[in-house]
Structures are given as C-alpha cells and as structure tokens.
Specification:
By secondary structure, the protein is an alpha+beta fold. It contains four helices and eleven strands. The protein has helices at 80-93, 110-118, 186-191, 194-216; strands at 14-23, 36-40, 45-58, 64-71, 100-103, 122-127, 132-134, 142-143, 154-158, 162-170, 176-182. Strands 1, 2, 3, 4, 5, 6, 7, 8, 9, 10 and 11 form an eleven-stranded mixed beta sheet that branches. The radius of gyration is 18 Å and the shape is globular.
Length: 225
C-alpha cells in the first residue's frame, strides 16, 4: 500500500540489519516460548529475554520503516546470519532493490557479504580488528588493525570477499573501529570518500534509534504476545 501510494521507493534506499534483546528479567525460562539468554551489549553480558532481529529500510525519498523481522527461536537451530539471509531473500522477492546494506560486525560474516554481493548490492559493515586483508595481490594477508588507514579510506582485498575500501573511525581515547565498504561499481568504490562512509554510517544509526524507541516509548519489553 505504501508503494502504491508513492510513499516509499523500493529502489535506491539503504537496508540496515541489527538485533536487540527485549529483556524479561522476571520471567521464567522454559515456561515462555522463545525466551532465552542472549548477549546484551548494553549489559555486557547475556540477559534473559527475547532476541529481535530487524531489517530497517531508509528509502531514497527519506521514509524510514522496519520491513522484516524475526524472533530468534533456538528450536529452529538457525544462526542470526541465517535469519538475515532468509529475510534478505524475502524482501528481494518483494521487489526491494536497495543500493546498500549496513550492519555491525555481527552480520559481517563472509557468507552474508558474498550473498549481498551476488545480488549486486553494496554494503557498509563493521569488521573485527583481526579481520584479514591484503593490500595487493599476491601479498600475504595481515590484520586490518596493522594498516595505516587514511581518512579517505584504503582499498584492500578482504579475505574470502574481495575488493573493499576500509575506513577507521577514531575515538578520543585512541581506539579505532573498522568498517568495510563495498560498491558493485569498481570505479565508484575507488572514488568513495569519507563523506560517503559517513552518510551510510549515519543512516545505520536509524535502526539503533528504532530499537530504542520500541523499548522506551512502546514498552516492547512488557508485551505478553
């Protein structure tokens, strides 16, 4: 209906994937479906609750809306990466053609990135500091945190994935967070700047705000259904 009325454009937007824990500290594990212990970055430990995985879309014309979700079910024996692939395949069948996907390091697995690449879609993902890269072929692989990365990014070969541009987000305490950018057009990838990185990185913040609003304003953690 949103598409038919012209509110949302299925082509050219950005899809963000992330998960959050809907804490249920007073519930009893084993008596409620889907309830379990899941890692919480806020608490820095596993907490009892429901794990919600969301695909969040920022359309080319500026609309921001959740478009697909899963509640993690340990009985299904799937990983969060498999849930993501399932949701991504589903929204592609619906006709969604985004220009890029954004995620944190959790969804930056090689299988996920190649899945997205095969669909001719770009991505900006967080990567662990020990992720293996090559500056040029056939040089040996090295950890991404051993590189000197300029503000404009550095073209490398990400092991098992291919050509990407890595960026380093630096913090006042001297630490650094690493990201890998991929664009289907090699020339566009080579020309990508820090401003391109910042734009995608800023759009990804939308899913963080969505999950936070769901908890603080909509009381998702209190729902019994």
């Amino acid at each position: 209906e949103l598409v038919a009325q012209g509110w949302i454009d299925l082509v050219g937007g950005v899809v963000s994937v992330d998960d959050t824990v809907l804490e249920k500290p007073y519930s009893q594990q084993g008596t409620t479906a889907l309830l379990g212990y899941f890692w919480s970055s806020k608490a820095a430990k596993p907490v009892l609750g429901l794990s919600l995985i969301t695909l969040y879309y920022t359309s080319a014309n500026g609309l921001r809306v959740p478009i697909n979700y899963r509640l993690y079910d340990k009985a299904e024996g799937k990983t969060k990466n498999q849930y993501f692939q399932q949701m991504w395949h589903q929204v592609r069948q619906w006709g969604l053609r985004p220009r890029a996907i954004t995620s944190d390091t959790w969804y930056a697995a090689k299988a996920n990135l190649n899945w997205v690449k095969n669909d001719q879609t770009g991505f900006l993902v967080g990567i662990a500091k020990n992720r293996q890269v090559q500056l040029t072929l056939p040089q040996p692989y090295q950890r991404v945190d051993t590189l000197t990365i300029p503000e404009a990014g550095l073209l490398v070969y990400l092991k098992g994935v291919g050509r990407v541009k890595v960026f380093c987000q630096r913090f006042k305490n001297g630490s650094c967070r690493y990201y890998a950018l991929y664009l289907p057009d090699p020339e566009a990838l080579a020309a990508a700047t820090a401003a391109d990185f910042e734009q995608l990185h800023r759009l990804h913040w939308g899913i963080e705000c969505f999950h936070r609003a769901g908890k603080q304003l909509c009381a998702l953690r209190c729902f019994r259904v």
